[in-house]
Amino acid sequence: MAISRCLLLFLLISxxxxxxxxxxxxxxxxxxxxxxxxxxxxxxxxxxxxxxxVSGIKLSDSNPDLDYSKIGFFLCTRDAWLHxxxxxxxxxxxxxxxxxxxxxxxxxxxxxGDSFNALYEEKDADQYTLVFANCLSQIKxxxxxxxxxxxxxxxxxxxxxLSAGKTILPRVYFFLSLVYVTLAGIWIYVLYKKRxxxxxxxxxxxxxxxxxxxxxxxxxxxxxxxxxxxxxxxxDVLFYIFxxxxxxxxxxxxxxxxxxxxxxxxxxxxxxxxVLMIVIPLQxxxxxxxxxxxxxxxxxxxxxxxxxxxxLVDVVCCCAVLFPIVWSIKNLREAARxxxxxAVNLMKLTLFRQYYIVVICYIYFTRVVVYAxxxxxxxxxxxxxxxxxxxxxxxxxxxxxxxxKPEAHNPYFVIDDEEEEAAAEQLKLEDEFxx
Length: 435
Ligand SMILES: *[C@@H]1O[C@H](CO)[C@@H](O)[C@H](O)[C@H]1NC(C)=O
Description:
Helix content is 56%, strand content 17%. By secondary structure, the protein is α+β, with helices and mostly antiparallel strands.
């Protein structure tokens, strides 16, 4: 069952991956009369280039008297675009291509036969969107567009296909993967040293860290291939596979730790299994959505739908993983009241509460704060949001590993009477605590 599911997913991934070409994009437009079609966004430095190859152009009306200068491609910053919209509204210009605020790359007047190529040099550093405008509303356009945007780097004019704010990402990912490899090494050492008190969950944690390291290595390779050649050379497929495995394992791990599986009890309750049965398929959906989102770019036709699917699924997963922790906290509080081992349970209780808060912080930070950073930082510093998210993830891994490490002198079982009494006192206060 599990294997057939994995295979299916792999097929789906390869299917999606085959139509995405990373930073060099190939787009087919078929009988489209949208007045504005945005293609792609890119952060240029002072040595930016845009290569545009348009072929197979067919217009629904091939009347030679048409004003072909009213159909074409232009580059525009977001701020400028708002002004252009205002100009259009005030009827200062009739076509976005005529506005002085946009940089026209090429219009259809330069068409030879059914195709044209254009090379545009962008000298003003900024984040631009490549947009197609068709101001002849009665005309439907079909064409194949290949667009490549890059910056020339250094004295040798090496092409850098990564947007200005993302160009250091390969190094960032590579460095982080080294950090996780080190963490995995440390963890193996800890497991070996404390092998008498190791639970199954500790091996699970090891697997998650190793997958995370592989995931980052693939992402580094993927990005560095894109940087050099404009396409990922298959590394994106590996990256998606590891992302998928890591995503499922991480959420499962959070649920398992939350239930206290293998720490507190060797089995899972039915309702806890149900949480896993919800989270795992949802992670599959989330990963498929992520693949589509990444590969189609922000202006692909299904982008918004998939983005919404992803957000919804992600929110459901994040909420679902909190339930087992809450149940554990509830159980521990009840147990602490009924049986005599107040101190033991109180310690576990504190641990689970900390864990609960840290999981919430982790989710909040990697979803909300990272997103906010991404929105407010200038295009030149887009990498900062990636680094912030990765550091939060790293902190979460380290916290989880540290708090749930195998311990020879497990404090849960060695407790003296004094502590026991103090704990019983504290538990009375705890009763007032509401989650
Ligand atoms: C695309 O256009 C550029 C710029 O004119 C040209 O150098 C390049 O050879 C073209 N590529 C293809 C595949 O036609």
